[in-house]
Here is the input.
Amino acid sequence: MVPAPSAPGLLPLVRLLQLASPALPVGAYTYSQGLEWAVESGAVRNEADAAAWIGDVLTWSLARFEAPLLARQLAAWRAGEDGEVMRLNADFLASRETSELRAETVQMGWSLVKLLAELDAFAALPGWRARLLAIDTPCFPTAWSAAAAAWQVTDDQALAAYLWAWAENQVMAAVKAVPIGQSAGQRLLAGLGARIPALVESALCLPEARWSNYTPGLAIASSRHETQYTRLFRS
Here is the structure.
């Protein structure tokens, strides 16, 4: 029997699944981005609280700043505008409101750059390894967008996968820290996932003048977490 030919254009999707996988060795599972302090303080006590906390950060921070910045970086990588990539990288680093949040994106960015530089699927593509290594102090979105652009992932799919991966990591942090059960975690992901298409659509057309990560509750939670007595997570 002759094997059926592979579906055209399927490889970018496969690469995207690899980028969004919890198995990506960047240490995302070690961070809660302030959620652990929200649990410690009593602000998040159950499934409903976790849904509200994670959903608010997703809507008012990730989707209104990180996602549109990622989309702009994807376009800059593809157009060869490395100076624009560097500008956006610096802007993202400056937007991290606590030492924990900055250390998180720098560590995850460094880990992803190291992986990509040694991964033939990326490093063998002409010019991409050198361009990525030229970025000073790459944050996580910068390295992630480089891989997505190099692997010809479409903007909408890239943003959806990026937001999903973030939401999945937050839900797993809630499962451990609140704690809530695995079934509750899946209910949270189903609800959060249903919101992602609209958030992606909005992020793709949001002008830079309207980008905002104004989430004071998140900044306070992260600041308090830095001096929290007992911690499971690094942020």
Observations:
- Residues 37 and 227 are 10 Å apart (CA to CA).
- Residues 1-7 have pLDDT under 50 and may be disordered.
